[in-house]
Predict the structure.
Amino acid sequence: MQTLAVLVRVAFEVLNWLIIARILISWFPHDPNNPIMRFIYEITEPVLAPFRRLMPRTTMPIDFSPIIAVLVLQLVERLLISFILHMG
């Protein structure tokens, strides 16, 4: 079960870093057709889209959905790892 817990932790860590990369990328002009950019967007968009729909629309040009997503992902990660470790 330890191995499964480590795999879950690594998967969530990678997803968190991809979300952070997406945040940083959004601050600079970039080519959306670049394969690396497309990869980042394709992996993170299914995670971020539900949070964007839940967030109220504001007049501020700041998207808070990545921050909320990272916090929720960290909570889900902890719960899932705890469940895995207590199962075994």
Q: What stands out?
A: The chain has a mean pLDDT of 93. The CA atoms of residues 16 and 70 lie 6 Å apart. The first helix runs from residue 2 to 26.
